[in-house]
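S.,

As promised, the pyridoxal-5'-phosphate run. Input:
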Amino acid sequence: MPPLPTFQDVLFARRTIAPYLPPTPLHHYPQLDALLGARVFVKHENYQPIGAFKVRGGIHFLAHLPEEQRARGVVTASTGNHGQSIAYAAQLFGVRAVIVVPEGANPVKVEAMRAYGAEVVFHGADFEACKEHCLTLEREQGLRFVSSGDEPRLIAGVATHTLEIVEALPEVEVIYVPVGGGSGAAGATLVAKSVNPAIRVVGVQASGAPAGFLTWQARERRTAPIRTFAAGLATGQPFMLPQQILWQHLDDFVLVDDDAMRQAVRLYLEKAKTLAEPAGAAPLAAALQQREQLAGKTVALILSGGNISPDELRDCLR
Ligand SMILES: Cc1ncc(COP(=O)(O)O)c(C=O)c1O
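Predicted complex:
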């Protein structure tokens, strides 16, 4: 297991990504205040150049990849946004990138990966099958496998979203962050607890793919089937590096079902005029679920991504 990233690593990551990614907006929406009975701020990671927070980690990772590994190229498995992040960063640094995606991957994300110059390989039904195939390609082609969760630099990179939140909104009391593999939530807790241990960080996962939640609860590895439409949250196995951080620091962990995420996608459109993908809308769904606990609090919702296909959006609006 690689070493756990530290708060210092996050500060270093911020310096690395600064020339490439300006801070994303943190907007206050009175209409969401009314809905939640709290002061609600949305961290707009859907405004990143790839439409999702993952690009922070991808750039930090590729920027510090040893020259010999850059020359060989990288391979990774993705349901979409992590792949886009690696593709985007690889193009920035002139590195070959192979992204293995499930057969039914979101066409919006696949097209974007190709547009960033990545080679996209379709393999298997889900993320777990893709990961297996990556290891084969790593062996056969000498590529550097990039785990979407167990890479300290990815965690330190994505954690910069929470650094921006606590700087812009030092009085924040609760932060909701979605959990797939757990890198974003691990980063969020790392920063929040280093700056002010009183900030509550709440992880949010799909009830249809609860491996991360079950692992956090049991404090040991648990797997679970994947039965959610939220691609960003569709992980069947936990990543133990972010889990170790979540075991230490995460205050609460909430499960939301697909219908609650559909409703949150609609609410973001209506109340904040912004496009969220289901995983990105999960924190709003969770906050609605915990509305009673939030009365009068200052709350930040990490809207982690907006890469939703027209079909998925139609499904949410129905
Ligand atoms: C939009 C979006 N939100 C949340 C997540 C979950 O992030 P993590 O795997 O860091 O837990 C992902 C993962 O790809 C994502 O794409």
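DSSP finds 15 helices and ten strands in the chain. The longest strand covers residues 200-206.

- D.
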